[in-house]
Amino acid sequence: xxxxxxxxxxxxxxxxxxxxxxxxxxxxxxxxxxxxxxxxxxxxxxxxxxxxxxxxxxxxxxxxxxxxxxxxxxxxxxxxxxxxxxxxxxxxxxxxxxxxxxxxxxxxxxx
Length: 111
Known about the structure:
By secondary structure, the chain is α+β, with helices and mostly antiparallel strands. The protein contains 3 helices and 3 strands. It has a 3-stranded mixed sheet with strand order 1-3-2. Strand 2 (41-44) and strand 3 (48-52) form a beta hairpin. The mean pLDDT is 95.
């Protein structure tokens, strides 16, 4: 489990470093993990990003490739488009896809 958490944290750090430079902003969210619920992850503005450990353990690579950029895009959306109140807007979708994510609003992982 600690190896998987480390992979997610490294991907978060890599993406935030890359996109902070590109957009001249400072996004440095605290990474947390949770095990209940059906959400793959969540972002609280650009402050905290949470990831579902249950899905991470089950889907590993697919989770890291889709959920991590999805949530990082929300953090950057908050910084770059603070008046964009639609969480899965065109701005968010573009950011997500540029970060290597799918741009899908929802995941399709099963318990």
